[in-house]
């Protein structure tokens, strides 16, 4: 049986804990972690909030040594490498873009992590066209910490749920947060 690509995903915060939520994907309800500040209408770099809005899934990366091959998905996915980073330094011209590491003196996220959080990452189209410095960077859909501990502003799912979800999303899918 062929599964259809989902056009819309919704994320809503739990009433009792704004750092946790549910991702609604068709009939599936998937637990998720949100930013430590919950969902915010106005996002700023370092505020720990997940941005409210609708975002395109731009594609992503997977850690090839932690997967047997490319995870199945209609989204464009590429293997990550130890030198991959993401600029989160609002003073740098590469702000909110992928960069190569090392990048001395530039604030960044290391995309090749030992904790498994970025084993599979989907780039959300937040603050990308145009990029506004200081309005938040590196907003991803990625693997959650055990217990769904809060993120720095991303939406995070259990690894198995993220792998399953990627089979059903594509470039036309929108993630609605809030």
What can you tell me about this protein's structure?
The chain is mainly beta and 178 residues long. It has a single domain, classed as L,D-transpeptidase catalytic domain-like (Beta Barrel). Helix content is 4%, strand content 38%. The protein is built from 1 helix and 14 strands. It has one helix spanning 159-166, and strands spanning 6-13, 20-25, 28-33, 39-40, 50-51, 53-62, 77-79, 84-87, 98-100, 108-110, 120-124, 140-143, 155-157, 169-177. The strands form 3 sheets. Strands 1, 2, 3, 6, 7, 11, 12, 13 and 14 form a 9-stranded mixed β-sheet that branches. A 3-stranded antiparallel β-sheet has the order 9-8-10, with no helix packed on it. It is globular, with a radius of gyration of 15 Å. The termini are far apart. The relative contact order is 0.28. The model has no long low-confidence stretch (mean pLDDT 96).
Question: Quick gist of this model?
Answer:
The protein has about 180 residues and is mainly beta.
Question: In terms of quaternary structure, what is this?
Answer: single chain
Roughly what is the average pLDDT, rounded to an integer? 96
Question: What structural category arises from helix and sheet content?
Answer: mainly beta
| Total number of beta strands | 14
* Distance between the amino and carboxyl termini: 32 Å
Write down the CATH topology.
Answer: L,D-transpeptidase catalytic domain-like
Q: At CATH's second level, what is the architecture?
A: Beta Barrel
The CATH superfamily turns out to be L,D-transpeptidase catalytic domain-like
Radius of gyration: 15 Å
Strand content: 35-45%
Q: Number of helix segments?
A: 1
- How would a crystallographer describe the biggest sheet? 9 strands, mixed
Any idea of the CATH class? Answer: Mainly Beta
Broad shape: globular
* Structural domain count: 1
Order of helices and strands: EEEEEEEEEEEEEHE
């Amino acid at each position: 049986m062929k599964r259809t690509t989902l056009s819309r995903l919704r994320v809503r915060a739990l009433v009792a804990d704004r750092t946790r939520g549910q991702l609604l994907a068709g009939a599936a309800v998937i637990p998720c972690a949100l930013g430590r500040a919950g969902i915010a209408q106005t996002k700023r770099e370092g505020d720990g909030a997940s941005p409210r809005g609708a975002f395109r899934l731009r594609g992503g990366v997977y850690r090839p040594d932690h997967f047997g091959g490319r995870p199945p998905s209609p989204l464009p996915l590429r293997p990550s490498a130890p030198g991959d980073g993401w600029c989160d330094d609002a003073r740098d011209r590469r702000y909110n873009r992928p960069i190569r590491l090392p990048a001395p003196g530039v604030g960044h996220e290391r995309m090749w992590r030992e904790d498994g959080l970025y084993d599979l990452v989907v780039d959300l189209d937040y603050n990308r066209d145009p990029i506004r410095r200081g309005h938040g960077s590196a907003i991803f859909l990625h693997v959650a910490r055990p217990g769904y501990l809060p993120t720095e502003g991303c939406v995070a799912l259990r690894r198995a749920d993220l792998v399953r979800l990627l089979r059903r999303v594509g470039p036309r899918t929108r993630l609605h947060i809030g």
